[in-house]
Amino acid sequence: xxxxxxxxxxxxxxxxxxxxxxxxxAEVRDYIAAHPGSWVxxxxxxxGGRGKAGGIKFADDAAxxxxxxxxxxxxxxxxxxxxxGEEVRSLLVExxxxxxxxxxxxxxxxxxxxxxxxxxxxxxxxxxxxxxxAHPEAISxxxxxxxxxxxxxxxxxxxxxxxxxxxxxxxxxxLLGALYTLFMDYGANLVEINPLVLTKDGRVIxxxxxxxxxxxxxxxxxxxxxxxxxQPADADQAAAVAIGLGMxxxxxxxxxPGAAPKNVGTIANxxxxxxxxMDAVKNAGGGAANFLDIGGGAQAxxxxxxxxxxxxxxxxxxxxxxxxxxxxxxxxxxxxxxxALAGGxxxxxxxxxxxxxxxxxEGRKILADAGFVPVETMDEGAAKVVAxxxxxx
Length: 393
Ligand code: GDP
Ligand code: MN
Description:
Elements: H1 2-12, E1 19-22, H2 25-34, E2 39-43, E3 56-59, H3 62-72, E4 76-77, E5 86-87, E6 91-95, E7 99-109, E8 116-121, H4 128-134, E9 139-143, H5 152-161, H6 166-169, H7 172-185, E10 188-199, E11 204-206, E12 210-213, H8 222-242, E13 250-252, E14 262-268, H9 271-283, E15 287-288, E16 290-293, H10 300-311, E17 318-325, H11 330-342, E18 351-357, H12 360-369, H13 378-389
Parallel strand pairs: 14-15, 14-16, 14-17, 17-18
Antiparallel strand pairs: 1-6, 2-3, 2-6, 4-5, 7-8, 7-10, 8-9, 10-11, 10-12, 13-16
Helix pairs in contact: 2-3, 5-7, 9-13, 10-11, 11-12
Bound molecules: guanosine-5'-diphosphate and ligand 2.
């Protein structure tokens, strides 16, 4: 994604805007509050064309930043290339630069000659295929001989041929050299800067980044190879944040060979009760697919979203909701469950519910009216949910 591409850019010395990576609206708000100014919120997704898809927003103050971040995180961005869409789970918050000019530069391997080919145009900020179609004369290419490598005259020649505004001339040869180093050293299939911005105050900055790395080239850079592996854990964290929970309030557990199938979804309030619930499931001979700590004071809406998140894991075939009412009110939890299941678009799984404490009686009544049979103890609930998950009626 862009933020990872820019991390690589900085390693080789390509200037990028100042900024921070964020996974929640609160982080965005706090960052802008601490750094007053004009900021761009950029959705971090794999697909391009985020600008057109509504994934790029501008904020001049912390409150606007928070509101826009809330809108973006969880939103599904769609484009012609990606009609299915991709959900936004994190943002890059970056200094908004005053743009004087937008250029385009990329390096890929030319299939025909097997050589790295540099493509440059002064028509940046738009789809390069469109430029190639409408203004083929505005596109300049250079095939680099890998044996001879890169030298600054290539950059000078390309800047001239592509008619880059004069402001680019000084920085461009060095910047292209750095991009070539990145391309070769990381075994990339593609490195692309669109737009490469000339700011009104004369800086040349990579405003966007696209780096497609070949897995075969990554043995030299284990830290970067790890980016791909870390994603499942990060996805859980992002999913928790997207529904308004803390980052560590949701985690999925991988199946283990020899252990019981992890097919029981669990929702509890508080890490302690959550651990207890998972242990009870295990003692009953089952396996918890996940752990979702709904926190204190959960309202019906959050219960509903939590139910949806847990059932979004296809392995989950039954769910145990175990709530001890302190600040979390039993009636709110019950209402959330009933509401979640009333919507036609949710995946319904057998539910075992244990409510204790504040307003538990009201909660149990709401559930009973909706046709659920609540359980009294944790072990009773665990035994029941494991049986249901494994196909009992
Ligand atoms: P993409 O649409 O996914 O390629 O995302 P980009 O990062 O290329 O951003 C899309 C467009 O948003 C750019 O072409 C710019 O027009 C605009 N944009 C992004 N960052 C800035 C900025 O810092 N200042 C200004 N003025 N515009 C920006
Ligand atoms: Mn772009």
